[in-house]
Request: fold
Amino acid sequence: MGSVHKSLLYHTEVRWLSRGKTLVRLLALRNELYIFFTDHPFNLLTDKIWLFRLSYLADIFTKLNEVNLSIQGKITIVFTTNEIRALKKKINFWAVCFSQYKIDSFPLLKEYLKSIDGTIEDFDEIYGEIEQHLNEILSSLEKYFPESKDIEFIQRYNWVKNPFLINDKPEDLSITEFLVQ
Reply:
């Protein structure tokens, strides 16, 4: 059909990163899939609200995958990883942007609206759902990565990051360990 992609990716629970890539690929191949399903009763590819949600989810999963990949690796330690705190701030920002009808942070959603010559105001009915979803992601992140514990932990063990900047002996070091540095 002249598409850039030769196959549709399948999502599996074993490869959790595939979820975001599958949504992005499904969105990219929606026109080809529509042609393929013309003989079958599959009306979701013509439902603008469903495609709006799909575009939003593809953007969110892409962003979550990027953060997840950025905090993995051999040289990544808890003191150099600020991506979770940054992600929490971004999600809060995205929720505010959505309430103000600004979707510049969601490129696939913006592209979808452009492709249908629609405006974001056309989808008022699902704004509550999207804002609720963003808030649920934020509360889930807060549950697993509480801000107060992160800041307390980093401040308490900040000497590990750069041991030559400390003036006062940390509580966890003995006087011998402190003087060795």
User: Anything to note?
Assistant: The mean pLDDT is 78. The chain has nine helices and no strands. The longest helix spans residues 48-70.
